[in-house]
């Protein structure tokens, strides 16, 4: 196994990832591509060039997401179940493997064509990225059937693990506008774009579930404004999705997001077993 690439550096490769990568790619390459705020790491795995013979076609690259046992990230098994369900209706990665050991759990998916909207190349084309994220969410929300979806992302489920006083501070949700199957983490990095700047696919669906569509729209629009540092871009996003901004619901779902994320980060800082 060759470990290539240092971004984001430095990356300490967990022992289990060493073992898994050796198993999955042998002498291929392992490139760290992403570290999330909660201790999760994602690696891109590629077969060794020697195996890239003319026939049969080379295997597509794969992504190995590693979630340490003490991380409050969505569980890889939860994400695998959601990906398997959502694949019938939306462009999302194919699950190749999922597993758990003493130190953590992992998910292996097949690489989808496209580049993340967080890739530096899209800094030159932020309008295209904002619009593609809006188009992608509209496609998911329109295509995935609520009645068939076994997963929920409703506020009551998201706040059930919060201390009661925190839950009370968030307050009751506004009446539902439209129940859809939400992405659950519709931040900029989780949309892939084609080279021409159009929507390609969704990744990172560990929280996918049925909820008011504003749960996604509130978070996606804020992520776009922040990542591209342009307060005009949310208007592009909402236009591409095809909706007029709803300030009350946007405000509620952004507050809910922040409270849940703060809680997750606190859990991560506590020593193992303390929470
Ligand atoms: N199957 C795939 N095909 C293409 N790119 C992928 C795939 N899986 C993951 N990626 C890339 O790896 C990145 C990290 O994966 P993912 O978003 O699932 O990790 P995460 O740690 O949960 O992210 P976050 O910080 O948003 O919670 C994605 O933003 C995407 O660029
Ligand atoms: Mg992500």
Shape: globular
Q: Quick one: CATH superfamily of the largest domain? A: Aminoglycoside phosphotransferase (APH), C-terminal lobe
The number of helical segments is 8
Mean pLDDT: 91
User: How are helices and strands ordered from N to C?
Assistant: EHEEEHEEEHHHEEEEHHH
* Fraction of residues in H or I helices: 25-40%
User: Can you list the strand order of the major beta sheet?
Assistant: 1-2-3-4-6-5
Q: List segments where confidence is low: pLDDT < 50 over at least 5 consecutive residues.
A: 1-6
Determine the CATH topology of the largest domain: Aminoglycoside 3'-phosphotransferase, Chain: A, domain 2
Instruction: Give the beta-strand count.
Output: 11
Can you walk me through this structure?
By secondary structure, the chain is α+β, with helices and mostly antiparallel strands. The protein folds into two domains: 109 residues, Phosphorylase Kinase, domain 1 (2-Layer Sandwich); 155 residues, Alpha-Beta Complex (Aminoglycoside 3'-phosphotransferase, Chain: A, domain 2), CATH 3.90.1200. A six-stranded mixed β-sheet has the order 1-2-3-4-6-5, with helices on both faces. Helix 1 links the parallel strand 1 and strand 2. Helix 3 runs antiparallel to helix 6, helix 6 packs antiparallel against helix 7 and helix 6 crosses helix 8. The radius of gyration is 19 Å and the shape is globular. The chain starts with a strand and ends in a 6-residue tail after the last helix. The N terminus is likely disordered. The site of adenosine-5'-triphosphate has 20 residues, from strand 2, strand 4 and strand 6. Magnesium ion (MG) binds next to loops.
